Amino acid sequence: MFKDDCLFCKIVKGDIPSNKVYEDELCCAFYDIAPAAPTHFLVIPKDHIGSCGEIDGSNSAVVAHIFEVIAKVTKDMGVTDFRVVSNCGERAGQSVPHLHFHVLAGRDMTWPPG
Ligand code: 5GP
Ligand code: ZN
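Above: inputs. Below: predicted complex with zinc ion.
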């Protein structure tokens, strides 16, 4: 369930403080420590999953749940235009190896991403 040396598992456990925007039994959402947009929070499963590349039939239900949470939290915040990003692997920009979805809003976004 938890991975001992994982930063985001420590945030789930409360061993490392975070500025939470949402929490339930399956996931939690908290503001990114280094925001890349005026609104930037992360949504993570409480159970440790390394990245998008580890999603399979045994753990994919939480991903659907997380997208429901993203829709609810953004609605509650009054945010209508936003981007959801999950970096998978170091070369794609993943720095924390616990599955997380960035939710970015509050500025114009460009495409393609860098
Ligand atoms: P990644 O680079 O893996 O796609 O995203 C990891 C994100 O976690 C980064 O945007 C980084 O700023 C954020 N982050 C790293 N350490 C912490 C922390 O201790 N607390 C919070 N709230 N965010 C963190
Ligand atoms: Zn973890």
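The beta strands are 20-23, 27-31, 39-45, 82-85, 101-105.
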